[in-house]
Amino acid sequence: MCKRVVFLFLIIIQTVNSQNQLWKGYFSYNEVKDLAVSDIKIFAACENSLFYKNRITSDITTVNTINGLSGQTISAIYHSEIYKKTFIGYENGLLYILNDVTGEIQILVGIRDQSGGIPPNQKRINNFYEHLDKIYISTDFGIVEFKLVDLSFGDTFYISATGGFTQVVEITVFQNYLYAVTKNNGIRRVNLANSNLINFMLWETFDSNFWNGIVTFNNELVALNANNKIYKNNGSGFVEVFSLNQQGLDIRAVLNQLVLTTNNNVYILNNLYNQNLVVNAATLQNFNSAFTAATIINQTLYIGTKTKGMLELAIGNPQNVTALLPNGPELNNIFSIQTTSSGNLWAVYGDYTQFNNPYPLDSYGISKMIDGVWTYIPYENLLDAKSIVRITVKPGNEDEVYASSYFSGLLKITNNQISIFNTSNSTLESLVIPGNPTYGPDIRVEQTVFDKAGNLWVSNGLIANMIKVLRSNGQWQSYSLDAVLTGLTANSRMSIDKNGTKWLCTLDMGVIGFNENYNNKKIKITDGESNGNLPSAAVQVAAVDNRNQLWIGTRRGLRVLPSVDRFISEDELTANAIIILEDGLPQELLYSQFITDIVVDGANNKWIGTADSGVFLLSPNGQETLERFTISNSPLPSNTINDIDIDGNTGEVFISTLKGMVSFKGNATKSKETLSNVYVYPNPVRPEYTGTIKITELTNKANIKITDIEGSLVYETTSEGGTIEWDTTAFGKYKVASGVYMIFISTEDGLETTVKKVMIVR
Q: Residues 701-713, buried b or exposed e (16+ Cβ, 10 A)?
């Protein structure tokens, strides 16, 4: 008749450590899912992060994966004023506790990892209710008891009539009874005086109707029915007291006021159930957005929204609205990003499936980060261009930007003026569906890239003339790939090497090399040992590194073409696997990994994104894995990597994932033309510093020699890119002593030299 469940009781205490200080978070806070209140703070839970406003100082603070939160989806938030802790519940059952005093985050995996036959998709945390020294957690399988005194799980209550799982939406306590609104079993209740609440037979059906929420208000039970009406019950049955105009989303009792939230309205009722205020989304100029939840603090109303963050407005003046919204991109699921030479960043949200299908078409705008501040070009300004998948910035002119639409053609953004290239004013072509002549236009433009002459090359998919070019003189031209294509194929990324060869990735025909300067030469590298040796014909990315090797990422692994020069001299090209030793046995590097992106940094290291395994940082030849970042060892919010790009001036590596974007402070920067701006940091090196010394603004292949003040050589290296690091050891043997050290730097040809000094204090 009863069943006791023992939860895995594991608490991980996490604070921001030195590793996380190398990371930054770039999350969207537009969609607020739930609200919570403390004595001085108002908390807004977003998709996988939260922010709060200190009502005394008006400061807004964000908390995300950089601070230790999970990248999973948040479903509920609650603050215990007595215990000064904020509880964050997730759709997968994770429970995080934010200590308001110390800032520490405690991670409890008991609900998520509890077995007992509970399906993984049925562990969602729906609500928290505090009573005495316990919190009752509503989940999709039942109720979990949590003890506030020692932060431990108690019993689990399976409260359906048969003792099985049932989705519990919300809980309240009234006259020493615990009432639970369930999805399919009406309102169930139990007398808290019972000592064996895990016995499902002690639970009774209080009302068998369908309900969406319940609170204790005005010394009565007040519940939100599925028929979108509010009922009260003082012990003699439910009586209707208010009717909503649409589905009720949230019901809260705040002192002597009842706050009701629907998609378009927030209603505030007094203790006589008379309407004191109604706030309509459509009347809030500049803040029109669907509502999600609302609460009151004193005479201020706070409303969570779908797209505008959290709104703050005075009850006495509801048209005076302030949006509380931390700086960030429009959405978390950024499909691709593009950094610029000045340190700005563009982000787009359009996408397509693994079969390169953009349907259902999306209608998102474009985000841009300038000096750390995000701005947004709304979809309404983009000439109805859908599924925007890439951004290309013209070298030397950041005011000229091109946005690839995987359905509508190519947008040109010049000094905030927007125009579009399509079938009417360019050689871009629409795919044709046999037997459906009225379909379209459907112009699949993916990657665009500039060559050295300022020509813009365009990949136009699912047509014969896949490669287009917009010449610097404004003329368009098309090139056919019939000689290497056996039919039509969807397009993907494209890059250009030092010889002007275009490398075009395709969905099912490998990677195609094309160069118009060599009699329109075309070569296809695809799967099969005799056809190019790729592990898959589905190629996601082809990146040219600093040694002119072509790194090819496919959906089933990695290959490397030893030299792009072979395209010029050979008629068939074969890519090679990278073989490494693992536990003494030869293994293929990234065997069967779905590779989503490859980016080469200033030191010729390879940053490789994957579909489900996070990010790999490989040495220039791939023989050493320098870093491996996943959700378990880094602030990555997801192991699904959409795109990677690097700010060549600072070395900051931006990583966009399915659940948000973060960046890692890398040290590999682009090389410079001269040694005129070389600098060393930190300088001096103080006793408490445990990192490396960076020497940056170097030319490529610069020679660096470091000696002590007496001229004894302690370190020597050659740069690959614009930055090198020294671990302050004498050739890795021992830490050098305190003193001044001389750094002699010369270019590869020896025509330019410079000398720097660094002081080390042990």
A: ebbbebebeeeee
Domain contains 262: no
CB 206 within 8 A of CB 171: no
The pair of three-digit structure tokens given for residue 608, joined into one six-digit string:
């490789």
* Cα separations in angstroms, 228 against 211, 235, 250, 397, 417: 9, 22, 11, 56, 47
DSSP alpha helix (H) spans, 528-574 = 566-569
Structure tokens at 53: 């406003």
pLDDT digits (tens, 9 = 90+) for 170-214: 999 999 999 999 999 999 999 999 989 999 999 999 999 999 999
Q: How many residues does the chain have?
A: 762
**In a 10 Å sphere around its CB, with 0-12 CB exposed, 13-18 middle and 19+ buried, how is residue 330 labelled?**
buried
pLDDT of residue 6: 46
Inter-residue contact 25 to 66 (CB < 8 Å): yes
Burial class (CB in 10 A: 0-12, 13-18, 19+), 129: buried
In whole angstroms, what is the distance from residue 694 CA to residue 223 CA?
63
Domain assignment of residue 610, yes or no = no
208: left (phi over 0), alpha (psi -120 to 50) or beta: alpha
The DSSP bridge partners found for residue 94 are none
- Tell me the residue type at 523: I
Which 3 state secondary structure label does DSSP give 206? Answer: strand
Using an 8 Å Cβ cutoff, are 593 and 609 in contact? no
**The pair of three-digit structure tokens given for residue 314, joined into one six-digit string:** 């005075």
Nearest one of 236, 202, 207, 205 to 223, comparing CA atoms: 207
CB 743 within 8 A of CB 757: yes
Which helix (H) or strand (E) segment holds residue 112: the answer is helix 110-113
Mean pLDDT, rounded, for 358-368:
97
Helix (H, G, I), strand (E, B) or coil at 518: helix
Range of the domain at 752: 679-760
Q: Which two tokens stand for residue 300?
A: 């201020």
Q: What's the whole-number mean pLDDT along residues 236-246?
A: 92
Structure confidence at residue 1 (pLDDT): 44
Counted domains in the chain: 1
Instruction: Estimate to the nearest angstrom the gap between the alpha carbon of 377 and the chain centroid.
Output: 20
Structure tokens given for 217: 């208000």
CB atoms within 10 A of CB 350: 24
Q: How far apart are the first and last CA of the chain?
A: 69
Judge contact between 636 and 642, C-beta under 8 A.
Answer: no
The CATH number of residue 748's host domain is 2.60.40.3110
Q: What percent of the chain has pLDDT over 90?
A: 87
364, part of any domain: no
Burial class (CB in 10 A: 0-12, 13-18, 19+), 727: exposed
pTM: 0.91
Provide the pLDDT for residue 3. 52
Q: Are 407 and 400 in contact (CB under 8 A)?
A: no
Residue 345's H or E segment, with its range, is: strand 345-348
DSSP three-state, residue 567: helix
In a domain, 28, yes or no: no
CA 660 to chain centre: 1
